[in-house]
Amino acid sequence: MSAVSRHAVSVTGRPEAPPMLFVHGFGCDQHMWRHVAPAFEETRRVVLMDLMGAGASDLSAYDEQRYGTLEGYADDITQVVRDLDLRDVVLVGHSVAAMLVAMTAVAEPERVAGLVMVAPSPRYVDAPGYTGGFAEEDIDELLDSLASNYLGWSSAMAPAIMGNADRPELGAELTESFCRMDPEVARRFADATFRSDHRDLLPQVDVPTLVLQCTDDVIAPVAVGEYVAQHLPQGSLVMLEATGHCPNLSAPDATGRAIADFVGDLDAVTA
Fold first, then answer.
1. What is the pTM of this model?
2. 76, pLDDT greater than 90
3. Which of 18, 25, 239, 253 lies most in the core, judged by the most C-beta atoms within 10 Å?
4. Is 217 considered catalytic here?
5. Where is the AB hydrolase-1 domain positioned along the sequence (predicted)?
6. Of 29, 50, 75, 217, which one is the catalytic site residue?
């Protein structure tokens, strides 16, 4: 089975236009881009995919060893790019997928025109000289809770991750999305995500990169977004006046405008 089929890839927009590939974060699927991606269909070839274990991906292809690290997920994105022969593609990754698309940019630099990292974090655990937002014991507790009661963890964590307590429907949607994942798959993905450290990857990503940072994000605080932008050779930071870790759902208009401005600047350079 091809990567396109395995990851339930959908393609819309203009077939002859430069492509954009949108990749969702942990516990989500391609449906999470429904308020952002369609705005680019008039001018771009829009590609969406489900990471392994999410959405309509083919779970029969799941391999514990392959997906024990984030590199396995990044390889899938790279394979989709190759199978569709995407060139001059803008890769848009949310949350952990920001690091995944960065890996693809390093693996296939000649194919990638630019990156958009939405609420990225290269390392979630604090380290000397680095603020990730969590202490090591916080991550241990988070992962232990997830492993012991995934549905309960999802019900508690998803609304906190989403923020926007005055809009409970957003937290409810994210909770439902989390709960659709196989608990064991989710546990391994979470472990690979929250114990990862890809700070060394950032200087290797030598393509124009937009970092979109929410002003109030419990998962990726402002210091993390600033760090990412500063350590990318061609990084730029845009602060979104948005709350929570999922601006593609909570602030889709502002998110879409920022991405459109970035894509427009890329087009101006290459014209």
1. 0.97
2. yes
3. 25
4. yes
5. 21-255
6. 217
* Alpha helices, H only, the chain: 3-6, 70-83, 96-107, 136-148, 150-162, 168-179, 183-194, 222-231, 247-250, 252-270
Whether residue 271 has pLDDT greater than 70? no
Active site residue 191: no
- Spatial CA neighbour of 196 closest among 144, 252, 124, 115: 124
HSE of 191, CA atoms in CB hemisphere, 13 A: 16
Which of the following is catalytic: 57, 76, 94, 95?
95
Domain-by-domain residue ranges, the chain? 3-270
pLDDT in tens, 26-48: 999 999 999 999 999 999 999 99
- Please give the share of the chain, as a percent, with pLDDT higher than 90: 94
- The active-site residue, picked from 7, 24, 94, 245, is 245
Q: How far apart are the first and last CA of the chain?
A: 37
Q: At what angle do helices 183-194 and 70-83 cross, to 10 degrees?
A: 100
Contact 259, 117 (CB under 8 A): no
Euclidean distance between CA atoms 167 and 159, whole angstroms: 10
